Amino acid sequence: MAQPVDYKKFIEINPEIRFGKPVIKGTRICFYDVLGWLASGMSFFEILEDFPQLNEESIYACLSFTAK
Predict the structure, then answer these.
(1) CA spacing 20 to 30 A to 66: which of 20, 30, 40, 49?
(2) Please, what are the domains in the chain?
């Protein structure tokens, strides 16, 4: 079983970025966007292919953040 990802290493909330929505650090990609892509059926591979600034851990961090 995989270790849980510490979402605090990957997600930040900054009022200057995307109106304070939680985003992946170093990007303007909102964690809600990642969840929406997963919910629409995109695979991890497809997301990583479309958004190379993300990595597998950042996607898992979005899922961990949701579960907090």
Answers:
(1) 49
(2) 7-67 (1.10.10.10)
Q: What are the tens digits of pLDDT across the range 9-54?
A: 999 999 999 999 999 999 999 999 999 999 999 999 999 999 999 9
> Cα–Cα distances in Å, from 4 out to 15, 16, 29, 55?
27, 29, 21, 15
Residues 6 or more apart in contact with residue 18 via CB below 8 angstroms: 28, 30
Amino acid found at 49 = E
Alpha-carbon span 8 to 12, nearest angstrom: 7
